[in-house]
Design goal:
Length: 82
């Protein structure tokens, strides 16, 4: 996956730690567990042509978490670009 610049990005994570840098947008969401105004961070990713072909052939999207603790996450498909 290729890191994309998400519309309305509010900050970039990881660049000072030597990573490429991950633009994200801070948002408040209504969560069934965390309640109204639960803080969240949204990033955008673009599949490479090879990844897109594998997805279209039935491959699954995988989420890798670095470390040993798994934070709550949500994975979804964004809007179609105009």
């Amino acid at each position: 996956m290729i890191i994309a610049r998400i519309a309305g990005a509010t900050r970039v994570l990881g660049k000072s730690q030597g990573y490429i840098g991950l633009p994200l947008r801070d948002e408040m969401i209504n969560c069934t567990v965390g309640g109204e105004a639960t803080p969240s961070m949204v990033t955008a990713w673009e599949p490479t042509p090879d990844e897109l072909a594998r997805l279209n052939a039935g491959a699954l999207v995988q989420l890798r978490i670095i470390g040993t603790g798994h934070p709550p996450v949500m994975l979804e498909v964004g809007e179609v670009p105009e």
